[in-house]
């Protein structure tokens, strides 16, 4: 079969790789109907050292089950499924607590294993990992179903971890796919004011359609001052940080209200958190982390199926496998928000 392999910074190729096989009785083989390129894939695209063997890419996909192992009971051949970005058994203590990203037997896509930017994937722990989409859904919903595998669930995790509820005031930092998903999540959880900090107009326009009440394009001190102005000088109850860079977190602490919560889901590209005495004196809480998408998909799936939310609108470009290398470059150049891949 064919799949995307990254050999180093800026070097993504479409290679012929071995077809996946059922290795364990709990495995399933899924034919990928749609995958995508994630913003987090851009970090190695910018910095990965050259590798002779390369890394398989992609951790977001939906598709059709083609084969199952003998111990798979809840997934059947022919099912259309959503694969969260981490595999989990669904039975360990962490899974039962809704923290499937810490599953004691979990696995990740890509690297030397199958990735979602390919034609097929071996899914370990299929019963615990995959979510079946009820038959008869509209194929036009596939982009939104795919969004549940990562970005929509991650945005929702930011909002839930931050405690967004009816009447909350919220600032979202970042107008990428996760930031826009965080706006949509804050909206469905009842936030009364949602300030989106971003400077790409096509993206912030979508953010307004998703529920943002205000857009702040300024950065640094000017952006902080503008958020403060929009909130009577106090800042918002909750800040959802969806960038992963230290200046974004510093801005989050500067625009959160005293007693408020900063929830970060942007994969951090730094190790030291600027949480010092001023934040201590203001009783600021820092939370967030990697999203247990498997815990949220059952909640979000009905909202996609009934049309309440349409997170698939974050995909603004579609390519086939041959178009994946150019798709990476388009996202790196900010010419595309998020690229959907149809193998």
How is this structure best described in words?
30% of the residues lie in helices and 24% in strands. It is globular, with a radius of gyration of 20 Å. It is of the alpha/beta class. The relative contact order is 0.16. Helix 5 crosses helix 6, helix 5 crosses helix 11 and helix 8 runs parallel beside helix 9 (246-255). The protein has 12 helices and 18 strands. The model has no long low-confidence stretch (mean pLDDT 97).
Strand coverage percent = 15-25%
Number of strands: 18
Task: State the end-to-end distance.
Answer: 10 Å
Helix-residue proportion: 25-40%
Q: Using only CA atoms, what is the Rg?
A: 20 Å
Shape estimate: globular
**Would you identify the regions where 5 or more consecutive residues have pLDDT less than 50?**
none
Average residue pLDDT: 97
Q: Which structural category fits the helices and strands?
A: alpha/beta
Element order: H for helix, E for strand:
EEEHEEEEHEEHEHHEHEHEHEHEHEHEHE
- The number of helices is 12
Largest sheet: 7 strands, mixed
Key phrases:
343 residues, seven-stranded mixed sheet, six-stranded parallel sheet
Structure summarized in a few sentences:
With 343 residues, this protein is α/β, with parallel strands linked by helices. Helix content is 30%, strand content 24%.
